[in-house]
């Protein structure tokens, strides 16, 4: 109880610094503080009775060009700085009536997890009913996407969380390994992990994904320039060489920014392995599993609704070279002009705005109560949020 008294007085001081005259999304006071004591174990789940803001949509960007499309396109007028955000991106931005807010995590897994943790624990924000749109750019698999395309993930897989030996140092026993990566707790590259850390796989609400996908499918996408089209044409794959579209397929997370066919094939294999064959890897990024880990932890204590998270990634570059550059991936990655970033940034807004608008417009009738509740399992590989997992095992060594 002492803790809550301290928190309350600190918050009262903060609250008085804010103008309260506007039509804020302020939570109804709920007495949901529970203190459960079992002998020496205190479990304190707390509500945020002094939260000032209850946004309906929270947009999560990873770096400035992903943020700028929203800051330019919507009427963000409030900047709110809270502890724990990236020093480079210290502000949350909110629209006039605080119904839509935006945060930039900074790039990579550590920045993403740290920022989302700070946000979900902030006493200023009640996020229990908020929808989160994680919207960034990604590398694309030419079989499934092209530059400028929009992808919505059901699974997020953290692929580089494995053992790794440089392939030049593998002995004869590993002559048939395709890379130097192999899963924790195994001795053989093709084996399912014996132990996990818990952030390897996350599954998201498919019904909400389908709604966002349907809305985005009606959007007009930026096709890119002639240079974009010219680079796409180097690929024999049907999707890669077509105009951008909207796809349902899954994202990988890796701090290691990999590229090329060898890594692509291996991580494609690993994504399937980790999701028991369910994931279709098409987009590679550096943050989503980290953000989702922070969201799972917050959801466990009721601070966010994990069924209200969407991961959307637009493709800024190919994750593999075209056949003509397969012998020189360094040239492909460092030098070749893909011209994909511009349509990818533009299409974050083009494809993301419809679901944002839909949530705001249909809040009372569809979204507040959660009409798009999940029928599939949602959560992590430990089953932290309950439900029956369609991947993972009953028990892992940790
Ligand atoms: C909140 O709940 C506690 C414990 O159930 C109860 O003792 C207290 O009176 C409640 N406070 C209010 C304001 O309802
Ligand atoms: C709020 O943030 C935006 C974007 O970072 C910046 O352009 C603007 O100057 C900030 N406004 C204030 C009042 O700090
Ligand atoms: C908040 O502002 C948006 C955009 O102007 C508007 O569509 C929405 O209805 C407003 N919400 C409320 C509750 O006033
Ligand atoms: C992807 O395309 C390549 C050819 O570019 C093909 O060999 C491979 O089987 C395809 N993979 C999938 C999963 O469709
Ligand atoms: C490599 O060969 C060994 C022995 O035949 C086999 O058990 C293993 O599954 C193979 N590994 C891969 C990655 O194909
Ligand atoms: C997409 O557009 C079509 C044709 O205008 C319309 O019938 C459909 O309802 C739209 N879908 C959504 C999800 O808005
Ligand atoms: C380049 O784009 C313009 C329109 O943007 C088009 O008229 C022209 O045909 C394109 N050229 C090539 C080589 O694709
Ligand atoms: C759903 O929303 C309606 C209208 O906002 C409200 O009256 C009703 O109580 C809500 N139901 C639940 C289960 O929250
Ligand atoms: C997933 O695959 C692993 C390894 O084959 C297996 O042990 C586990 O039971 C599978 N999980 C589900 C839910 O099918
Ligand atoms: C990360 O989380 C996503 C859920 O969006 C999942 O599909 C993916 O497999 C996870 N793992 C990695 C390595 O990215």
Could you explain how this protein is built, in words?
This protein has 398 residues and is an alpha/beta fold. It has one domain: Nucleoside phosphorylase domain (Rossmann fold), CATH 3.40.50. It has 10 helices and 16 strands. It has helices at residues 2-16, 64-73, 109-121, 206-217, 226-232, 261-274, 288-300, 329-334, 341-361, 363-367; strands spanning 34-38, 41-45, 57-61, 76-81, 91-95, 100-104, 131-140, 150-152, 155-158, 163-164, 181-182, 201-203, 246-248, 250-253, 281-285, 309-318. The strands form 3 sheets. Strands 3, 4, 5, 6, 7, 8, 9, 12, 13, 14, 15 and 16 form a 12-stranded mixed beta sheet that branches. The chain has a two-stranded antiparallel sheet with strand order 1-2. A two-stranded antiparallel ribbon has the order 10-11. Strand 5 and strand 6 form a beta hairpin. Helix 2 (64-73) packs across helix 9 (341-361) and helix 3 runs parallel beside helix 7. The relative contact order is 0.17. The model is unreliable at 1-31 (pLDDT under 50). Residues 226, 229 line the site of one 2-acetamido-2-deoxy-beta-D-glucopyranose. Pfam families: NUP (PF06516). Keywords: Signal, Transport. It comes from [Candida] railenensis. Belongs to the NUP family.
